[in-house]
Specification:
The chain is of the alpha+beta class. It has helices spanning 2-13, 15-20, 25-41, 130-141, 149-157, 175-184, 198-212, 275-281, and strands spanning 52-55, 109-112, 191-195, 216-220, 225-234, 246-252, 259-260, 264-265, 271-274, 299-303. The strands form 2 sheets. Strands 1, 2, 3, 4, 5, 6, 9 and 10 form an 8-stranded mixed sheet that branches. A two-stranded antiparallel sheet has the order 7-8. The radius of gyration is 23 Å and the shape is globular.
Length: 310
């Protein structure tokens, strides 16, 4: 049956058109192959998958000089004011020489954990392999795999071990499968987070990159595509200021150098995608194959939680 379907596709669009991707023929052929592969693999298994963690946006601070303090975070500014008694007599437990801890200065910040984006870039070999390419690039940034075609084929070949219906009704890759794949290759601690707002998701990803020295994965194009976020620019340090505005992100896009008929041209590795590009590409999750109660209408990302020293 699979051979018959493939033969029909080739007969309709032509070998030459597929080879040159005339009018998207190569794209059509690749997607047809993916459907045949899914048919031959059988039903998508209905099994457990890493849960999607809902992240509710906290109220933003009203004043620029208020800082974000997380309980138990030793790197957070000390929120306790040290006061000297007015009568010059030391009260129990109070150091008269102590002074209030100065609040950090609000300054723009520019962070990118990848110095040579081309070195860790991997183009998706097939049009439906953005997730395997995204996993590969994330692992390459962490020094765990190379960027060869052979490596991507190997990652893609293992997706049946990680797929589940609750993660992707279509089978194959979903964000939970990506977190399992990363763990299988030595990148532990990646979690699927769903945020109320785009800015909340960008802050969450930015803080995670700072804290873990690891890239984050953004589920762009309403959950249909994968962008690897390696850094960002903001008007203030998001790990310090709760209302820091993320102005854009440094992205590895596995679609490059291809052109999408819907989303347009892709950009070279390490391109800074500004706020307008994030608004255009990073959209709330909405999949045509059905509902996902824990993701629909939210901004989904695969977030690192464990620091890596490279």
């Amino acid at each position: 049956m699979g051979a018959v379907i493939i033969g029909l596709v080739v007969a309709v669009v032509g070998v030459g058109a597929i080879a040159t991707d005339t009018l998207g023929a190569g794209d059509l052929y690749g997607r047809a192959l993916a459907k045949v592969d899914r048919f031959l693999a059988g039903p998508v298994p209905d099994r457990s998958a890493p849960a999607t963690v809902r992240i509710t946006d906290p109220p933003e601070f009203g004043a620029d000089d208020e800082v974000l303090v997380e309980p138990g975070d030793s790197a957070a500014p000390d929120a306790t004011a040290h006061l000297a008694p007015s009568d010059g007599v030391s009260s129990p437990g109070v150091d008269p020489a102590a002074t209030p801890t100065p609040k950090p200065e609000r300054l723009p910040i520019d962070v990118d954990i990848v110095k040579n984006p081309n070195k860790v870039f991997a183009h998706e070999i097939e049009v439906t392999w953005c997730s395997s390419a995204g996993v590969q690039m994330t692992l390459a940034v962490l020094g765990l795999v190379d960027t060869s075609h052979e490596q991507q084929v190997e990652i893609q070949s293992r997706v049946r071990r990680w797929e589940s219906y609750r993660d992707s009704h279509n089978g194959n890759w979903g964000p939970s499968a990506m977190s399992l794949a990363l763990d299988a290759y030595g990148a532990s601690g990646y979690e699927v987070h769903a945020y109320d707002s785009r800015q909340g998701a960008m802050r969450g990803a930015a803080r995670a990159i700072q804290k873990t020295n690891s890239p984050a994965i953004l589920l762009t194009w309403r959950g249909a595509h994968t962008w690897i976020m390696t850094g960002f620019r903001a008007d203030a340090d998001p790990s310090v200021f709760g209302n820091a505005k993320i102005e854009g992100a440094y992205i590895l896009d596995p679609w490059y150098p291809d052109i999408s008929s819907i989303w347009g041209p892709s950009d070279p590795p390490g391109t800074f995608q500004d706020a307008s590009e994030l608004i255009r590409n990073y959209l709330p999750w909405k999949r045509p194959e059905g509902r996902y109660a824990d993701r629909d209408g939210l901004f989904v990302a695969v977030i690192p939680t464990i620091r890596v020293d490279r």
